[in-house]
Amino acid sequence: MDSFSLLLFLTISIAIIHSFAPDHWLPFVMIGNAQNWSRKKMFLYVSVAAIGHVGSSIALGGVGITLGFASEILQGLESTRGQIGLYLLIGFGIAYALWGIKHAHHHHHHTVDLENKKIVTLWMLFAIFVLGPCEPLIPLMFLGSSFGWSGIAVISLVFGIITLAMMLLQSFLGYAGIQLISHKFAEKYSHAFAGLVITLTGVFLLLV
Asked: Distance of CA 116 to CAs 51, 105, 110, 121, 161, Å?
């Protein structure tokens, strides 16, 4: 196995392992269940978030390599972005849980108000994923730079495709699983439960 093939294998392996992190799919499962997303919506929202998630790191890595920044500097920036992303995820989860409790006790909310809340939720989720970096990608891009810009492009593309595929697969599997749970109490507080799970996910990742 030549060196580039080994790097490619390493990229695929790391992308798969990285995507198992619950913040890559659990928020979509919980929000999708609370808002009754269709499969088409699930595919669209996860795909957009995944592209933003990977794309922000590719952009940062590309600019850093072009300007000659050391890998350690960019990894430090990614780590900082990761911390900010987790704090935002926790804050978003808490806010969504509180809104979910309020919504459960006030069923007279207008449909327009609920739709506006859904739009805000999607934008917040997208922003959090853009700010939350793919930390393993930066060093892989630096390794790919040994093979020129074509090497960087291939590594970035492969990492992005694997991450997208894993996020979609886990989101759909999780969504199918949670749909099997049918209980009036769970349905009434579905938004609150979604916020709670997202909050606990962020806290867990912050502590590990």
From this structure: 24, 18, 10, 9, 31
